[in-house]
Amino acid sequence: MAQNTNVTITGEYIELNKLLKFESLVDSGGHAKQVIADGLVFVNGEVATQTRKKIINGDVVEFNGEYLRIHAN
Prior knowledge:
alpha+beta
């Protein structure tokens, strides 16, 4: 079952790998890099290939049945 979570960030953006770690969806930075490289992470419905992709207000990140809706503070 998919889980929707609203995530509020401070500042303009958060890097994709840091978001995955911050939300405890991965165990480490290395794990974040691996799941991104394996094509398991989607941003706004498209496969994300950049580990440090800037995630901004309004983006939706999907990984492992989790949907993170990003809101900037």
